[in-house]
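Sorry to interrupt, but I need a hand with the structure work. Can you supply me with one protein entry, sequence and fold together? No commentary is needed, just the two lines. Leave the record below and I will have a look.
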Amino acid sequence: MDNYKILDLPAEVAANAPQDGILSRTVLKTADVNVILFHFAAGEELSEHTAAVPAILHFLQGEAKLTVGSHSQPAQAGTWVHMAANTPHSIVAETAVAMLLLMVKNS
């Protein structure tokens, strides 16, 4: 079995962007990490929540308001955030947004 995966992220983003709502698609699930590609239509919101494991957000396109803990900031293509487990966070898409979520499983 191969131990790598090649994914054309720009093609995945273009092919799956929703006109309305939020779409999520798991692109990799292993014993160590879950990688989920999110697409948010403009104006969509992921309300405050936490993850039981450490997580990384990597914004691929668009503009959003990102809140992590009590800190709010703009997020755009290239924004990269690491969060410890149980860190409250939320996202409001100001334009159409594509983002990778990496959930790192504890060993």
About this structure: The chain has one helix and nine strands. Helices lie at 9-16. The chain has a mean pLDDT of 91.
